[in-house]
Amino acid sequence: MSLAIQHIEKSYRNQQVLTDIQIDFQPETLYGLLGRNGAGKSTLLNVINSRIFADKGSITLDGENLIENEALQNRVFLTSEDNLYPKSIKVNQVLKLTEAFYGGFDWVFANHLIKAFKLNPKLSFKKLSTGYRSILKLIIALCVPVDYIFLDEPILGLDASHRDLFYRALIETYSERPRTFVISTHLIEEVANLISEFIIIDGGRVIEQKSAEDIQQSGATVSGAKELVEDFIQGMNIIGMDRLGSLVSYYIKDYQQQEVPDGISISPLNLQAYFVKLTQREEEK
Amino acid sequence: MSLAIQHIEKSYRNQQVLTDIQIDFQPETLYGLLGRNGAGKSTLLNVINSRIFADKGSITLDGENLIENEALQNRVFLTSEDNLYPKSIKVNQVLKLTEAFYGGFDWVFANHLIKAFKLNPKLSFKKLSTGYRSILKLIIALCVPVDYIFLDEPILGLDASHRDLFYRALIETYSERPRTFVISTHLIEEVANLISEFIIIDGGRVIEQKSAEDIQQSGATVSGAKELVEDFIQGMNIIGMDRLGSLVSYYIKDYQQQEVPDGISISPLNLQAYFVKLTQREEEK
């Protein structure tokens, strides 16, 4: 039982965009799909959801070929791009069309979210701001009766309170009805506590697939007063740092367990620092 | 000498979107424009840039009426929305059109940024991903020969390294040729150190206009080990909190100077926490 992506390749003209992509999406799991701008995330999501055809490779759902099997494709969902909606369609019409297409819709949760986000269901899609277009799309994604749900940058343009509301809604619906969500995002730290598996793609290849726990255990965050911390971390493999008030945190890869002076605290590695380091280009160093 | 927005009102059908907006944009200043989703930010930016007409009020540039004065309007720039570009236009054509329209363009800096961001100038606009559309728009905004530049969510869809690259490019071009930038964004903490003046709008009104320094001085961040901090802040006006490793930071409004126990550090107030609290709705409390 899984959604298996096998040896997917895709190129446009002479440019290779996806190379030998292999991912086995397990049921009832929350995935984070991370990658730099231009890494191939959106192309991969479009291939998995039959909006673009791959040049090579296969995609199977529970062992059956997904491509050209409409019944199976209805068990997989990807948030729409803006230009896939008719121009004058209204918010509530979009929801009804979704229900008709997927044979069901969680109206109770949708209406709860419409109210919480203050989305006006009578507005036409084209009148929605960037933030509210994202809100409509994430409401649909959380309410379709589908086993594998892909969200491409669901918090694009969302303010801080609305981002928080989305994360809580995701946890709520997942707890009630576990299913697989794959979330592509650039705000890595914000989703760090939701996600159990991270897939990192760079230059069209999967360069890492690890549990959030394994990544966080592959190093450490060393925090405390600036002088104290900077003295302690000498010679360590520093991959990033942050300030919080007058305190600093340094992110250390391959941290060795050791005795720690008073005033310094050790905690799991920061995911964003790990990702930035892993995908850094030569000229950015 | 300023770009003065006076008593601007705007409504759509029966809904008031902007109410008595008064802002005096000073020359050579970096502004942050903050607001919840739906607060009216994009409408305001469109009104200032003559893409939408206000129902009431006036906009003057150095004392002269901006509306219907094309020569003056060329001194004010707003990043374009996607649907304003012809579908098949290529990246380098967009740049050349911008130069023709504004009578100049900083090609040296533009080419430097195109390389740094790895933007392919031969691609057509519609083939660009969300992130690369943002990158094209911010390159244009940083290179037009204009005195007042408005950027509507310039980092939409940008990865962490690219966001950092943008912030550094903004500082670089501003230092060389000071002019006014007005940046609307939802990633408040990331721009906190760049911006000198914040304008906060909510429900279509300017609810606050303050220097970054004044906001940060209107409270404090109290950081340290969890138990120690939570003991110390009892009875204070808590507006938010964050964790960093095993440390916590509480954001306190109207903090009173006082003696502080060892192990606790006091620093300026967190801007995002301040903003979230200021614009929180009754049902979100």
Give me the secondary-structure topology.
Two copies of one chain form a homodimer.
Chain A: E1 3-12, E2 15-25, E3 30-35, H1 41-48, E4 56-61, E5 64-65, H2 70-73, E6 76-78, H3 91-102, H4 107-116, H5 130-143, E7 148-152, H6 160-176, E8 180-184, H7 188-191, E9 197-202, E10 205-211, H8 212-217, E11 219-225, H9 226-232, E12 237-244, E13 247-253, E14 264-268, H10 271-278
Parallel strand pairs in A: 3-8, 3-9, 6-7, 7-8
Antiparallel strand pairs in A: 1-2, 1-4, 4-5, 9-10, 11-13, 11-14, 12-13
Give the helix level of chain A as a range of percent: 25-40%
Widest sheet: strand ordering of chain A? 6-7-8-3-9-10
Q: pLDDT below 50 for ≥5 consecutive residues: which ranges of chain A?
A: none
Shape of chain A: globular
CATH topology of the largest domain in chain A: Rossmann fold
Q: Helix-strand pattern of chain A, N to C?
A: EEEHEEHEHHHEHEHEEHEHEEEH
Strand content of chain A: 25-35%
CATH H-level superfamily title of the largest domain in chain A: P-loop containing nucleotide triphosphate hydrolases
Second rung of CATH, namely the architecture of the largest domain in chain A: 3-Layer(aba) Sandwich
- How many angstroms separate the termini of chain A? 42 Å
Into how many domains do the coordinates of chain A divide? 2
Q: Care to count the β-strands of chain A?
A: 14
- What is the CATH first-level class name of the largest domain in chain A? Alpha Beta
* Oligomeric state of this protein: homodimer
What composes the largest sheet of chain A?
Answer: 6 strands, mixed
Query: What's the tally of helices of chain A?
Result: 10
Mean pLDDT of chain A: 92
Radius of gyration of chain A: 21 Å
Largest contact between chains: A-B, 50 and 50 residues
Q: What class would the helix/strand composition of chain A place it in?
A: alpha/beta
Keywords (chains A, B): ATP-binding, Nucleotide-binding
GO molecular function, one term (chains A, B): ATP binding
Domain ABC transporter (chains A, B): 3-228
Protein name (chains A, B): ABC transporter ATP-binding protein
